[in-house]
Amino acid sequence: MTRREIHEQYELENLSPLATKSAHTRGRVTPAEKCIMRTEFQKDRDRITHSKAFRRLMHKTQVFISPEGDHYRTRLTHTLEVAQIARTIARALRLNEDLTEAIALGHDLGHTPFGHTGEDALDRLLPGGFRHNEQSARVVEFLENEGRGLNLTREVVDGILNHRTVCSPATSEGKVVQISDKIAYMNHDVDDAIRAKILAPGDLPKYVSDILGSTPQKRIDFLVENMVESSVNDIHLSPDIAEIMTRLKIFMSNNVYSGQLMHQKERSKISKMLELLYEFYMGNPGKLPQEFFARFSENPAQTVADYIAGMTDRFAMKRFEEVFMPVAWEV
Q1: DSSP H helical segments within the chain, as ranges?
Q2: Rounded distance between C-alpha atoms, residue 304 and residue 17, angstroms
Q3: For residue 298, is it within any domain?
Q4: Is residue 59 part of a domain?
Q5: Number of domains comprising the chain
Q6: Which of 34, 174, 265, 278 has the fewest C-beta atoms lying within 10 Å of its C-beta?
Q7: Angle at which helices 97-106 and 172-195 cross, to 10°
């Protein structure tokens, strides 16, 4: 037996009935030769971490736009926190850790520059709207490798596509990532908001510290333990804790995500910048990189949205400066 086959057999004998077994994967759109060392889900994890889209996450905003300071979360650090939380839960529930990690590492590959501000801007501009989970699936299915995609297993693509709260992942591992994403961003966004002095520790609703815990670490530990204890026949938080998380999200939306004046001013600037870039490339497709220009005629709006969504924060600002800012010249 190869090392892959030994690991597949281990999964069949030891993982929970709720787990997705590597040997039972629904496969890839394009069949590929199996590795003698790695399972199919381990291959997917590696393909994601070696992708250009994954590397770009380090220069994409999580919540705070162009923050001054090295300790605010980026889209990459958020992704790694989700992966760590999700793996902890998957291990405790005897689910497939490799599948869980692959989904977690790929779930935000399609996020725009400037976080949800960028997503909202493209959602207004693109006919039919823009949703980052669908774009993440588009990245791994089509955009990476110059239009060839990463050819991931169907289970990983499903988890990436359906990680938003309104969606329904097909696997237990996808459900773990879906909730882990919420656990991660709820807690690190509170932490970053306090660091930015948008919130003071005493501003948090009393139920947060009384029930979930007084620090991000305690809250994450509590939520992970609650999820493990509650997930007997399905993957979920207990109903009372899920309700508290919903209330906390509303609080953060009102007081951090859209309620801070300085942040609103920056949001307006970014929305206008991306709108102008979108209009420029729609009118000047020859200025697009060759791989995007080559398929512009197939779907102009989607092609331009693909290009802008793949930009990092600093690359978007650089392109804007090159296109719209005057350049000094000498006589």
Answers
A1: 3-14, 40-49, 52-56, 75-92, 97-106, 115-125, 132-138, 144-147, 154-161, 172-195, 206-207, 216-230, 239-252, 261-283, 290-293, 300-309, 313-324
A2: 44
A3: no
A4: yes
A5: 1
A6: 265
A7: 50
Q: In CATH, what number is assigned to the domain containing residue 236?
A: 1.10.3210.10
Tokens encoding 254 = 């009102």
DSSP state string for 208-272:
IIIII-SSHHHHHHHHHHHHHHH-SSS----HHHHHHHHHHHHHHIIIIITT-HHHHHHHHHHHH
Check residue 260 and give its pLDDT. Answer: 54
pLDDT digits (tens, 9 = 90+) for 26-71: 999 999 999 999 999 999 999 999 999 999 999 998 766 655 556 6
Instruction: Please name the residues in contact with 263: beta carbons below 8 A apart, sequence gap of 6 or more.
Output: 64, 65, 198, 256, 257
Q: Average pLDDT over the chain, rounded to whole?
A: 92
> What are the distances in angstroms from CA 259 to CA 82, 249, 250, 279?
25, 13, 11, 29
Per-residue pLDDT band for 218 (boundaries 50, 70, 90) equals very high
Structure tokens at 320: 């804007």
Position 226 in a domain? yes
Whether 243 is in a domain gets the answer: yes
Instruction: State how far the Cα of 219 lies from the Cα of 118, in Å rounded to an integer.
Output: 29
Q: Are 180 and 154 in contact (CB under 8 A)?
A: no
Query: pLDDT, tens digit, for every residue of 271-322?
Result: 999 999 999 999 999 999 999 999 999 999 999 999 999 999 999 999 999 9
How much is the average pLDDT of 217-237?
97
The sign of the dihedral angle between the CA atoms of 90, 96, 98, 100 is negative
